[in-house]
Amino acid sequence: MTILDRPAAARPAVAAAPPASARGAHHVPDRVLMKGNEAIAEAAVAAGCDAYFGYPITPQAELLEWMARRMPEEGRVFVQAESELAAINMALGASAAGARVLVSSSSPGISLMAEAMSYMAGSRLPVVLVNVMRGGPGLGSIGAAQGDYLQATKGHGHGDYRVPVLAPSSIAEAIDLVRDAFILAERYRTPVMLLADGILGQAMEPVAPTFKTLEKGRPDWILDGAAGRAPRVLKSLHLRPEDLEEHNLALQAVYAQIEKTEQRWAGEELDGSEVVLVAYGTAARVARTAVERLRDGGIRAGLFRPITLWPFPAQALRDAAKGARAVMTVEMSAGQMVEDVRLAIEGAVPVSHHGRMGGMVPSPDGVVDAVRLVLAESKEAGR
Amino acid sequence: MTATEPVLEQEGRTIYRRPALLSNPTSYCPGCGHGIVHRVLAEVLEELDLGAKTILVGSVGCSVFAYDFLALDSVESPHGRATAVATGVKRVRPDKVVLTYQGDGDLAAIGTAEIVHAAARGERFTVIFVNNGIYGMTGGQMAPTTLAGQKTTSSPRGRDVQTQGYPLPVTEMLSLLPGVQYVARVSVADPGHVGKTKQAIKRAFEVQLEGKGFSIVEVLSTCPVGWGLTPSESMERLRDVVMDAYPVGTFVDRDRGIAPALPQPGAAHRSITEGF
Fold first, then answer.
1. Domains and CATH numbers, chain A
2. A235–B88 C-beta distance less than 8 A
3. pTM score of the predicted model
4. Pick from B23, B88, B116: which is nearest to A53 by CB?
5. ipTM of predicted complex
């Protein structure tokens, strides 16, 4: 379906009217302006999300509000839970019963969801979890930040598990990645995280008004009452160490397959670049402008943008950085992804970090200055 | 009937049959009430012919392996979250029968928010709440339901209400909520009470099948190991002490006109607006 198939009252605000010549009774504009949170929500509706569970938190509240209106319109399930703990556990139950489920929150709420994410990974239950990151630690601020990178990619809940993490850097890309997240979640029977930030959630950008649908199968593991078959049990508990090890080995085999086949990235101006900027999400937008300004100033800069933060596209980055004099991450954090970048580069090229924290966003000129400094130091060191 | 059939088969009739839904012998301690509750639950589901349309939401505690003993489609939940998980299951499969099976540590401590809000939303599933007043699986620590003065491994001098608070009457608290359709507290202290337990559990599932609202049956049970008593002493304590502190009975059955004798929220407002 398209978002414009819906009743007029449910349509997103079209801030810029299409040109008069193109107007007609059935005219569909090429672009509509949508807020990131609302676009993510509508993308999930279009992709056949059966159930949404959430709890209000800034800066993702519009996502919850959009679903509060849209899911009942479509005859689907919406529950505003009493907490993020309850929301993700409702998702656990709905997923076990075979529903395609979306849950969203922002950083502090995501921390509360860590427990059930571990259970869902252990029980092999698909779910898509959106984190519209804000400043931390603790209650932090409601400004956009990227301080949850390590939480998203390295841990979140307890135990040996991984979660694919998709990082859009525009609202249009977020729309595509919501659908891809459902595909990954169901293909591998795993939770998947969409890692956005407060700017992506709150900003409005023009997007194509037609959102893609997604077919849904009927997997052979879901719970629907054991009629005419043996009962099924979905669980993470395996008390015998031998059994739990075997279960863990099976999980690791899934993660190895994901690492092998699902790495995604985008590169810009990477050929022959002497400095490679590495950034994702909103920080990648800043880095892109910095690359333009550096190139205008005669420095051959390029941008490597991971789209999957886990699995991290390490080999692709290593290849992209070959021949570069410096690699620099641009992050809205103290430098978290930089750890993965260093692991990927394996010391072949000096790696540094430039970032701001607490809801502050690095400026393109700040990045340009940092790059010039690093290149100067590199020259002094005779590299 | 032919003359060659053995006498016993000719004259015998079935007076004891294990419900087919009880798939495996339980591993509970001697004198523990979980085995009784499992059996009663299996009998009720079988009598109502619900086995093939029921989804069990497990919990954490001694009953964590309930899915090993009950032949039902089952999903595990994190400690305390069973009613949130059940909300997700029932909302997407309203045509199925959904139940949670939770102990008092799970439901009355770590799962307090989840049970209250599932009840407040009037979720249309059934909660089997087995209350033995103690954390059994972890070694007999004090629970919110532990009686005043009761000795446990984490209240070695007896529960001191001045520092450790009073027992939490969850079932009475839930009875006040308008979305709650059926509430009963029963016991496994003797065969008579086990019979009433079965009636209550059956009624709870009937209420769920009618789609009217939330139903919960609290079953007062035993923990001989945690209580430091023999199985028969445990049943005596259950009957003489625990049932005195936690009175049994049907607290809410709205269809049958049983509701707490308290003004219902919104009643005053209704009477005023209806007057105009």
1. 3-8+27-207 (3.40.50.970), 266-380 (3.40.50.920)
2. no
3. 0.92
4. B88
5. 0.91
